[in-house]
Amino acid sequence: MFLPTFLSILNNQIELNSEFRKNTFPFLDMLYNFALRMTGNENDAGKLTVETYLRAFRFYDHLDEKTDLKSWMFKVIKKAYEDLYGKFQNKKEIKNTSEISEMLSSLPVELKTVLILSDIENFTDEEIVAFTDCPLPVVEERLKEGRKILFKSFNRDSREMKDNEIQSYIKKSIVEELKTEPTPGNVKKKILIKIK
Predict the structure, then answer these.
(1) How far is 74 from 72, CA to CA, in rounded Å?
(2) How far apart (Å, rounded) are the C-alpha atoms in residues 166 and 159?
(3) What is the CA radius of gyration of the chain?
(4) What residues does each domain of the chain span?
């Protein structure tokens, strides 16, 4: 009696593990890149990504089939970031070589979050609203403010350009400069080991 019950539980766990990987790993690189831009360095980004997958796996079997897994995974990483690094902490230790990456990492959390989601991860306005739990006008204002701060960091005189030109210039700079990074193999391996 014990052995069949044990085998049934084991089979269910193997199926859940396989389904979790199949349904969530397509978002791994996006989540790693979000973590990289939020934390400002690869080591912390790896830790945050692993923590995100551990938390997601823990609650995965409680989701229904209507759950938007991409949005849910980003909510999990947001909560993990807040728990590990503090909701409004700005990282001072920047290890990226890119100038725009350093400037982006130095922004307040609420500004860099919307910039990363919009300009790097190509989230729609509606997805950003759902992620941040902020109304659309707040999201739009944060995007505008974040881009203006980045523009000033380039030591440019904003009187030379109109506001919409500033917005377009910074968005283009972010897209060109901050390419999507593949998740390092050691991070993938840690996730696979820990969700077994």
Answers:
(1) 5
(2) 10
(3) 19
(4) 1-94+184-196, 99-177
State the pTM of this model: 0.74
Q: What's the confidence (pLDDT) of residue 96?
A: 35
Mean of the per-residue pLDDT values of the chain? 82
Q: Which residue has the tokens 């831009």?
A: 37
Chain centroid offset of residue 134 CA: 17
Binned at pLDDT 50, 70 and 90, residue 6 comes out as very low
pLDDT band at 135 (very low <50, low <70, confident <90, very high): very high
CA distances from 45 to 79, 127, 177 (A): 14, 22, 18
Q: What topology is assigned to 1-94+184-196 in CATH?
A: Rna Polymerase Sigma Factor; Chain: A (1.10.1740)
| SS3 annotation, the chain | CHHHHHHHHHHHHHHHHHHHHHHHHHHHHHHHHHHHHHHCCHHHHHHHHHHHHHHHHHHHCCCCCCCCHHHHHHHHHHHHHHHHHCCCCCCCCCCCCCHHHHHHHHCCHHHHHHHHHHHHCCCCHHHHHHHHCCCHHHHHHHHHHHHHHHHHHCCCCHHHCCHHHHHHHHHHHHHHHCCCCCCCHHHHHHHHHHCC
Return the closest-CA partner of residue 117 out of 189, 38, 16: 38
The domain over range 99-177 is classified in CATH as 1.10.10.10: yes
